[in-house]
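Standup notes
- DV: blocked on the single-chain target, sequence here:
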Amino acid sequence: MARFTVYATQEGRHHSHVVEGSSFEDAALAFTQMWRPAPDEEDGDGGVRLRVIDRESGDQQCFIVDLGAADPISCAT
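- DV (later): unblocked, structure below
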């Protein structure tokens, strides 16, 4: 399992947590299940925008997770 730093972009990096997962997507889902971030009010779609950073490589990905669904969706930023 890889280790990732994950945070909700509306809350900022100072609210990040270290999460273990088999992929970026797995880490995004684990974060939402463990810390239940508030939906992003700017998007208005009930989802939360997450930044997921691989702690070993530094690679980053952004996801929008619909808190009522199971699959994270990649976002452009």
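- Follow-up: The CA atoms of residues 1 and 22 lie 5 Å apart.
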